Amino acid sequence: VVAAVYATPDDAKRLREAGVRDSKTVDPGTLRRMSGEILNVIPETHRRVRVLMPEEYNRLYASKKNLNLLLAQIYAETARDVWKAVPTDTIFCDQFAKREELLEGFFRTFKLPVPRQQTKAESASIAVASASVLATAAFADAMERLGDQAGLGKPLPKGASDLRALKAAARHLLQQEGPEGLGRYAKLHFKPVQEVLSATGK
What is the DSSP letter of 120? Predict the structure, then answer.
């Protein structure tokens, strides 16, 4: 999930008053409330949340064979969607790769201003912090929907934070729907998923 938010000075003031901050510092209950606050403050045209469901993610990753290339493209596309509504000279981005030119190249392709890349940009920009909250909330919603679709009765495991649960869910899905079905729920290049596929000879 990637999100972009444009915030005016007045928006920024209201967001800070609402306590908006980096999503990694917020518990799930507060995150839902905070996401709602952001949606109330930021007009729909000034925000964009892009959710890549696993099937689309796997297809795009297969064409790129590089996670940072894929991220750079999606960052630029998401920023472009907001920039078209509110052109601005300054775009802050959370830095995810050591090579800044990777993201800059995609921004130039879409005729966007060169982004200011910074690690932990959420602490420097209330707009980036707001985007992180919207992205995290959308990710949680997507994992709930996928868990329901998979018949697990709970959200899909979120990743490497609980490898035992992740592998158990992957084995269940593989048994129920086969390798192709597993691709509707998981990043197929993810090492623990690859290990489950290898162990079952799929």
Answer: T
Where do the H-state alpha helices sit in 26-125? 28-41, 54-64, 67-85, 100-109
Tokens of 196: 């489950």
CA atoms of 145 and 94, how far apart (whole Å): 27
Per-residue pLDDT of the chain (202 residues; tens, 9 = 90+): 999 999 999 999 999 999 999 898 989 889 999 999 999 999 999 999 999 999 999 999 999 999 999 999 999 999 999 999 999 999 999 888 888 899 999 999 999 999 999 888 888 899 999 999 999 999 999 999 999 998 888 999 887 777 888 888 888 898 888 888 899 999 999 988 888 888 876 5
Question: Which tokens go with 27?
Answer: 């518990």
Angle, helix 163-182 to helix 191-199, in steps of 10 degrees: 70
Coil, helix or strand at residue 92? strand
Let me know if 160 is exposed, middle or buried by CB neighbors in 10 A (0-12, 13-18, 19+): exposed
Lookup result for tokens 């999606």: 74
